[in-house]
Amino acid sequence: MTETLTEAERALLPGERDIAHYREHGWWVSPKLLSDSDIEDAWFGAERYYGGERDAVLPFEAGTDWTARRGDVLRQNDYVSLQIDQFRALVRHPLIAATAARLAGTARVRLFHDQLIYKPPRVSPRVSTVGWHTDIAYWKTCSSRNLISAWIPLQTVTADMGPMTVVDGSHRWTGNDTLEFFHESDLDAIAARIDTAGEQVVPVPLLLGVGQVSFHHCRTIHGSLPNRSDRARAALAVHMQDADNRYVPTVDEHGNRQSHINDFLCARDEFGDPDYADPEVCPVLWQEPV
Ligand SMILES: [Fe+2]
User: Fold this and answer.
1) 70, 262, 272, 282: most buried, per Cβ within 10 A?
2) CA of 55 to the centre of ligand 1 (A)
3) Which residues fall within 8 angstroms of residue 27, CB to CB, at 6 or more apart?
4) Entry pTM
């Protein structure tokens, strides 16, 4: 967390041009940050998780969208890093959070939550497409618009595997903070609802080798097509808070209070609000050395 990186590790961090790319496009693809054994460990963790093992048990079922009863469909399971040691280690990989800190321009990065996403091969597009969405659309109680996600594939991601696809530069369009269509499969229908700020929609599929990681801004529109290959496509999305993020109470258009699962997992702060700096749920993943 607060450890210093070796010289070889520091050489892998984004430089000025990379940071400029992230700020302009809303996404960036890293060089190989993770070793093959890091990835093997993550796969082992995924197998343990899907097999029902837990190293720690949450106070309630949090974000468990997929269970074996749902069958061979897109799997999305949240908070695996709070439940499985291998993912606990992966989200703490210093290069991932240090990279996020540099791209977001923040001195400290805290975990917000994580998602293990598994796309089975050769299943109906209806059950394996991830619809266009922004992550911030699901984080209505966050004060910041500078959260950042790392998307860590557990294998090579080729064009036929339904790669994570970002809409280039869409983090600069401010009208999509309610674009929450993760579970919808008609990408064209959703595209008609994007506020493009008068710009063109340019989807960019992010093809990654083993150990590479992609990063995207919380306002960057993204989704993915079905996995048409004969291999499973698994990834861990690590959603991270910049130093300034905190809980803010919000209501929807009907006056109903909005919430995030973190609001029920985190301890309360001095005002009685969810503490998004709770060290158990939202640990510091990176702190710039002073
Ligand atoms: Fe997302």
Assistant:
1) 262
2) 26
3) 166, 168, 204, 206, 214, 215, 216, 217, 220
4) 0.95
